[in-house]
């Protein structure tokens, strides 16, 4: 009681300013301790919550990474199910066990290619009787192959199956699959895809394509997951029918101490930095059991793996029968977050102390008169920092704080103006960059065409010389041959009864047949030589892509030369009959243009028409291409190139002339043909090019160019 009275009297005897300071100091200390304590609790609990959510999110990413391979397998073998060689092999196997060796070799090569491309262990073609027809690895033709009845289910449902299954090791060894050397006396976890193969005409299921990817001791799987999730721990456990769990594969990212990491910052090689430890198990199977008991749900806990504690998330992997056959495990390291939490708490404490000192100083030096203007300025600054460019500070007085608020408003105005300027400059730079990229690609394409033109012109020249020699001597050969035949006929008249030797030779060489057939043979040679000269002349005319001269040319000649070059593509093939080209040429004069570039436009448009007819052969029984020319008004001509293919959707046709836009499969189109054609017609010849098309009605390209250029190109 005496001690308490002393403190009260001491406080009462203090000056008023010190009483205010003491009370403020005490309240600030209490507030700071409370805030730091509560903040520490919130940070710790929030950090743990974040870790659990992060582990669940990373488990989803792990599942996606795990599914990528099986989806790739499914996609690849779905495409191979339409392969005509595989379909023919299944058809042929229905009537006979002995498959044509050539066809068997072709199908085996397809399966081996898939094994190499997908990096899998097995690829098998199985018939409706569940017997192997062709195997990508060792020859097991005729053996029953129906792992876990997957093939039977696919044949019944006519639906592709993608699943993870457990297969007995003995069964796989019987198939001579290349298993990892670590696999000894254990069940195997395999990702399977089983794809039905149908008869394209009848829709009958002929058999199935089966692919298998062994997971056991495949560290690449978990390494890919760690790369996708940024490190940590990843594992796959096999869930046996007895309820036991066995580790299939696992990877743990090594964590160096901070000082070692800084020391080896520029020495990230295997000698100084081993990135992963493999096959590190969990310390117990509690989480695995929980994941299997609740299939489809994510189980989480905190476990120690190696020397560090991780937040672990696990989820079961079910087979086709919806039974849990494996558990996917993802571990998020807590060490970095713990360091971050420690640093945050330290910074928070330091900031709190600094804030306490600043608050006391401001309370003593400035008082309440300064607080409100500063709060107003602070609010404006916070609003501006969050993106409100219209935020301004209220100028309450003309003192230093007022001047500060005014300066802040000027700064904000300048920043906002500068931000708008930077945005405009970025947009201009983006447009310039896109234009430069388009120009670069078009220059590359033009250079390729120029080089091709020079090569074609050179080849045409080299072919033309010997052809002219042959063609020029054919008339003399015909004349000499006719003279010899006439001389032979005179001999026959003057000496009708030759000796036995001459008579035997006459009968052996059939002189009468030679006299009739030799002129025909020379005429055929003359026709062939004329055809070669015609093709060579067309190549020389078309190859003028590098001509810089602007001159009047015959448009019809350019079209005809293009058709001669494309004659082989117009011929009948196994997918469609011959393409009929209907030319409706109008009476048009010579046109001033770059001949090689205009020929390139014709080549692009006619080639696209042929491609359209090749891609939709089912709906086109009589493929046709119409080429129409006409003079418009006094100084314009129009060229129309139309096909009776499938046509183009309006939304797609609006993008046809954009660089790199193509509707062709990957590897069959660059998306530059029509873009370059647009540049040639519109920019270099001041004309126009458009596309008229509807689905099911074919496609028509309309090119308009002036006969004479009225402005300088």
Automatic annotation (TrEMBL):
HAMP domain span: 368-420
Annotated GO CC locations: plasma membrane
Q: Does the record's keyword annotation contain Zinc-finger?
A: no
Pfam families to which the protein is assigned, alphabetical: dCache_3, HAMP, HATPase_c
Please give, as recorded in its UniProt entry, the membrane topology of this protein.
Answer: Multi-pass membrane protein
- Molecular function (GO) terms listed? phosphorelay sensor kinase activity
First-tier enzyme category under EC = transferase
SUPFAM superfamilies from the UniProt entry: ATPase domain of HSP90 chaperone/DNA topoisomerase II/histidine kinase (SSF55874), HAMP domain-like (SSF158472), Homodimeric domain of signal transducing histidine kinase (SSF47384), Sensory domain-like (SSF103190)
| Organism, scientific name | Mastigocoleus testarum BC008
Q: What reaction(s) does this enzyme catalyze?
A: ATP + protein L-histidine = ADP + protein N-phospho-L-histidine
Give the UniProt keywords, A-Z: Cell membrane, Coiled coil, Kinase, Membrane, Phosphoprotein, Transferase, Transmembrane, Transmembrane helix, Two-component regulatory system
Q: What is its EC number?
A: 2.7.13.3
| Protein name according to UniProt | histidine kinase
* InterPro entries membership: dCache_3, HAMP_dom, HATPase_C_sf, HATPase_dom, His_kinase_dom, HisK_dim/P_dom, HisK_dim/P_sf, Sensor-like_sf
Q: Which residue spans traverse the membrane? A: 21-44, 345-366
The listed locations are: Cell membrane
Q: Which residues form a coiled coil?
A: 422-449
